[in-house]
Amino acid sequence: MPSPMASIKSYIARLARFSNDETGAVTVDWVVVTAGVVGLAIAIATVLGSESIEHSERMVTVMSSQGIKSY
């Protein structure tokens, strides 16, 4: 059975290796960037969505008031 001191040193060595390991860091960066882009897209859709609905309703009103000419 290993001594308690050896177990602590082993744990510290594994912790040091883990803190210096950068594998997966690029994946985290891409996840953060993607989340930002999606958030921005949702914000733009929210702002422009209500305005486009109002514009389409005005267009329907104008178009429905026009008569159809037959020749």
Task: Give Rg in angstroms.
Answer: 31 Å
By helix and strand content, what is the structural category? mainly alpha
Global shape? rod-shaped
- Percent of residues in β-strands: under 5%
Number of strands: 0
In angstroms, what separates the terminal alpha carbons? 102 Å
Give a quick account of the main beta sheet: strands, pairing sense, barrel closure.
none
Q: Unreliable segments (pLDDT under 50, ≥5 consecutive)? A: none
- The number of helices is 2
Give the proportion of residues in helices.
over 70%
- What's the overall average pLDDT, rounded? 85
**Element string (H = helix, E = strand):** HH
Task: Describe it.
The structure is a single chain. With 71 residues, this protein is an all-alpha fold. The chain contains 2 helices and no strands. The chain has helices at residues 4-20, 25-65. The protein is rod-shaped. The mean pLDDT is 85.
In short:
With about 70 residues, the chain is an all-alpha fold. The protein has a domain at about 25-65.
Chart the SSEs and their pairings:
Elements: H1 4-20, H2 25-65
Characteristic terms for this protein:
71 residues, mainly alpha, 2 helices, 0% strand, rod-shaped
